[in-house]
Amino acid sequence: MKRRDFLRAAATGPLLAAFPPQLLAQDRSRAPVSRVWDHGALRHLLPTVSDTQILIKASFNAPLSRPPVLRAGALAVPGRMTDTTGEMWAFHATGLAPGRRFTLRLNASDGKALCEPWDLATFPSPDARPEKLRVLFYTCAGGHEGLIFLPTTVRNRMLRRALSFQPDAAVANGDHVYWDLRSPLTARTTGASPRASEIAGGTFDRSDLVLGSPNEAVLKRAAGPQIAPVYGTDFRSTPVFFIQDDHDYYDNDDAYDEIVTFPPDAFMTQMARATQSLYYPEFLTDATRSRGLAGSSSAGLAPPVSESFGTLRYGRLAEVLLYTVRRTMTLAGPSAVFLDHEVEAWLTRRMASSEVTHVVNAPSNPPGWTAGKWGEWYPDMLGRDGRLTVAEPKPYWQSGWLKQHDRLLAAMSGMRGRIPLSMSGDLHAIGLARILRSGTLDLSANPVVTALTGPVGTRPGGWPSGVRKVGATPPQHLTVDEHVKPIEQHGFTIADFTPDTIVLRFFKWDVNTQSVEMLDTLEPFHTAELKRPG
Questions:
Q1: Does a structural domain hold residue 456?
Q2: Pairing of strands 88-93, 69-72
Q3: How far apart are alpha carbons 206 and 440 in whole angstroms?
Q4: Is residue 177 part of a domain?
């Protein structure tokens, strides 16, 4: 049996194995809370901030016929409807004071409160010198319960435990939605399955618009249950930064003779854009980020926002560079890239700049490991003996991707006096390693630290060892020192930044052996203290 035929066959049966019965019996339980915040008419609310701006995405239990108003002190911000029925609204407040905590109020057009007031703080100004920052990192929180992903109440409970550590911000790195439409490997068990059509009340028409057509109702039924109940209003006071990966374009990164799913076509880009517009915030403007990068100001908003490339800037203490590798990838052989040259130039400029103490990369595709997938940095693929190999050419893989990988790792390692850290997801695992060498590139003077931050919603069989028949493994191109070999369990990572150190705390939860209640007291299983060199 050919490898691709084997993988397709494997996707249709074992992937739908049920969760443990004791988990399903408890999936409606909720994490204990000291006080219930009155969310009123809200279905979900997700904010992001910069030093002078707040952007909020919200949905309501029933459509609103007139724009609601967000109030921050004396400032009143009318909502902007992002769907065509009045359920989904965005609020963009500008000209705010840096480093200030605001009491926010959300009112109907007649002044009636739509929910209880809550607090949200802007980040410190770019010149401020805060002494600490705490960021929550995780990946792969998407998945529809009807397609046998981890129950949304369990995901919510896991994230509530993460929020109990009071992070200043959260980075959700990719795969907020799983509804693959064309991949021969995954579509038949997700978005192209009969069950998916039943859940969504129809299928997508790729020849039509996404919003303002029958596609809009299908999108809401497909994507809404993967996001709104997972977050609810729990993140109302925690700024969130959503990075898109392949599944957020409604497909898996696959390449076969009959179809190569990426780069995203026009309909895939519409789907990713519409889902983001409805459910989670874009990235706010940053003076150090080029304004013309792909996906910037797509909706004509002023000041501009960005769909694909963003910045979490916290004074002079830390800057997290947030970027997807899917939006601008090319298939140009030796000159192919995941990130177009303007994006790469922005990243290298920020790593070369000395104004911020910590500069962290957060790509959607992780350096350091491979699972033999097509759309990875590395040429490794699953051989006939069940092991990863580079002796056989990986079909449709582009050698230019690895060249760009090496350029980026060289820029990371070249940050003298800094910890070259990458925090990424995608591979449905928790892991930590140092990259000492990449091909002929010697990184040992300042090894690149790479972390897999932990998946939140992975379903049975969705782990690399289930889909790919091999776990996340260092590629042959690299020399890697693994401190935590990739663990295929649900979890998340808390990163604490101070002027001299970054402390990473890794959390894991075993769906097969641990109860849902154990999420409420989950503690880190591994802690790594990274000290600035020199």
A1: yes
A2: unpaired
A3: 45
A4: yes
Domain containing 273 equals 3-30+137-284+313-531
Reference 55, options 90, 80, 83; nearest CA is 90
Angle (nearest 5°) at CA 142 between 432 and 220:
160
* Antiparallel, parallel or unpaired: β 501-509 and 526-531: antiparallel
Report the predicted TM-score, pTM, of the whole model to 2 decimal places: 0.94
Q: Look at strands 478-487 and 430-438 and give their pairing.
A: antiparallel
pLDDT tens digits, 156-200: 999 999 999 999 999 999 999 999 999 999 999 999 999 999 999
3-state secondary structure of 517: helix
C-alpha to C-alpha distance for 219 and 88, rounded to whole angstroms: 13
Residue that has been written with the tokens 């990192």 in this structure: 137
Mean confidence (pLDDT) of the chain: 93
pLDDT at 75: 95
Residue 423 DSSP SS3: strand
Q: Is residue 280 part of a domain?
A: yes
DSSP bridge partners of 309? 323
List % helix, strand, coil for the chain (3-state, nearest 5): 20, 25, 50
* Tokens of residue 444, six digits: 């040992």
Predicted confidence (pLDDT) per residue in 282-307, tens digit: 999 999 998 889 988 766 666 789 99
- Tokens 């694909």, residue located: 308
| Domains in the chain, number | 1
Other beta carbons within 10 angstroms of residue 28's beta carbon come to 10
- Give the CATH number, domain containing residue 203: 3.60.21.10
Residue 298's pLDDT is what?
67
How large is the average pLDDT for residues 519-534? Answer: 96
Sheet holding 490-497, edge to edge: 240-243, 169-173, 133-138, 490-497, 501-509, 526-531
Residue 198 counted as domain residue: yes
For residue 3, give both structure tokens: 């490898």
- pLDDT band with cut points at 50, 70 and 90 for residue 1: very low
Residues 232-256, mean pLDDT to the nearest whole number: 97
The whole-angstrom separation of Cα 398 and Cα 73 is: 52
